[in-house]
Amino acid sequence: MNEQPAAFLDRASGIGEDGRNLTGSIVNDLGSMIVTQIYTPGQPFPTEAELCLRYAASRPVLREAVKMLTAKGLLLSRKRAGTVVQPEESWNLLDPDVLRWMLERAFSIDLLIDFTEMRLAIEPRAATLAAHSSTGPQRRAIIDAIDRMFAAERGEEDALQADIGFHIAVLQASNNRFLRQFTDLVDTTLRFSIRRTNEYKGVPRASARDHKRVADAITAGDADLAAERMYELIKGALDLLLTAGKLPNRP
Q1: Is the pTM of this model over 0.90?
Q2: CATH classification of 6-89, choosing from 3.65.10.10, 1.10.10.10, 1.20.1050.10, 3.30.420.40?
């Protein structure tokens, strides 16, 4: 009897790194197809046997992938009814994978507007808390992100990474365990929205000077000013999106 290679056994059983990689690949593929409506809401989902054959994967791997998609709100399993695709209102929009798949489908300015409005509710408060209670290393991380933004203006750094790094540093410096949970979500979305807002402004990158005004207020411990300047920063991006979408400005 021929023995199967260990890597094959790991892949087939879903055990080990190969199995995890295969599961993640299946989740990404199926999740993207659901969000782009290759599989539409209410439509029966392919059976476990069909998916095992399609992906050359074992049942444990497929079950784990379906379980992950169900946790994201994309699928619903019912006894005797099989697995069905869920409508968008059931999706977990705070899941970075779901949001990424939505942003990768046909461009929707409405989605970016909705997310920017959520940032408007979250990030000024994070700036307030960062000014009030951030640690020395956390303030250093904010300053470092600003330094990287200025370096990007000189062509010495990646502008997008520096911009995202600043906003994540502020969320982390809030020291609020719930606000810090938004870091992955903000990272995912800013990769799409920053490019759009810069394009609408007609500039290649965000203004390091405008972001430094927020950082200066935080490092000075001026909570009210930090919130005000962060609000202005994000409200400016929102106004650009509303104008591009030919929608009226909002308070």
Answers
A1: no
A2: 1.10.10.10
